[in-house]
């Protein structure tokens, strides 16, 4: 009887510890440079896509904001407002693809997607993306933990009309991000922020 009681207590403690560990799971985002989404974009020559694996615990109490900031010749375009905001999921957790896409064509378009959510493609005006050289890149290569109420750069699209482009910027360093903005002709910074809903 005593062994049975000890076993039940131990099992209960393990169950509680496991449940607590699951509840305290971090918000994470990881670049998926080799996903089906990325391959489809490449195979069909649709443009550029920044695809991520995203995990959001307590999704029923949080809001996710995705947006793009545009810089031309070192200056932020304050009129440029492109983004997507969603939250208060019916599920306790959200897991799946989250990302940004830049569609090529006569007019360039930008779109966002997240688990169970997609935004309408928005046309990019006055952006000379077909001139000079350009590149798209992720801001990091490994899984990152995200803190609430903090803005993160997760990717960038860069264009230079000078036919030269530096690499190796640290997107977590504000001075290096400013240097990137100053160095390139056009820059799109892809950002994310998670907040606790009220």
Search tags:
13 strands; 3 helices; seven-stranded antiparallel β-sheet; single chain
Concise description?
The protein is α+β, with helices and mostly antiparallel strands. Helices cover 21% and strands 42% of the residues.
Q: Can you describe this structure?
A:
- The structure is a single chain.
- With 198 residues, the chain is α+β, with helices and mostly antiparallel strands.
- The protein has one domain (24-196).
- It is 21% helix and 42% strand.
- It has three helices and 13 strands; from the N terminus they run αβαβββββββββββαβ.
- The chain has helices at residues 2-23, 36-44, 174-183, and strands at 27-31, 47-56, 62-72, 75-76, 82-87, 94-103, 109-114, 117-118, 122-123, 133-138, 144-146, 152-160, 186-196.
- The strands form two sheets. Strands 1, 2, 6, 7, 8, 9 and 11 form a seven-stranded antiparallel beta sheet that branches.
Give the helix/strand layout.
Blueprint: H1 2-23, E1 27-31, H2 36-44, E2 47-56, E3 62-72, E4 75-76, E5 82-87, E6 94-103, E7 109-114, E8 117-118, E9 122-123, E10 133-138, E11 144-146, E12 152-160, H3 174-183, E13 186-196
Antiparallel strand pairs: 1-2, 1-11, 2-6, 3-4, 3-5, 3-13, 6-7, 7-8, 7-9, 10-12, 12-13
């Amino acid at each position: 009887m005593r062994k049975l009681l000890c076993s039940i207590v131990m099992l209960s403690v393990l169950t509680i510890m496991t449940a607590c560990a699951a509840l305290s799971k971090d918000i994470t985002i990881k670049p998926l440079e080799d996903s089906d989404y990325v391959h489809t974009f490449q195979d069909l020559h649709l443009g550029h896509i920044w695809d991520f694996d995203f995990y959001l615990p307590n999704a029923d109490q949080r809001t996710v904001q995705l947006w793009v900031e545009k810089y031309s010749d070192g200056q932020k375009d304050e009129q440029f407002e492109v983004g997507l905001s969603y939250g208060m999921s019916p599920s306790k957790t959200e897991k799946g693809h989250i990302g940004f896409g830049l569609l090529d064509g006569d007019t360039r378009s930008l779109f966002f997607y997240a688990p169970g959510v997609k935004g309408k493609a928005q046309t990019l005006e006055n952006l000379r993306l077909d001139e000079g050289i350009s590149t798209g890149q992720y801001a990091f290569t490994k899984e990152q933990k995200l803190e609430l109420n903090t803005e993160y750069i997760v990717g960038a699209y860069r264009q230079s009309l000078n036919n030269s482009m530096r690499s190796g910027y640290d997107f977590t360093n504000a001075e290096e991000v400013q240097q990137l903005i100053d160095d390139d002709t056009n820059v799109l910074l892809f950002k994310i922020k998670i907040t606790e809903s009220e």
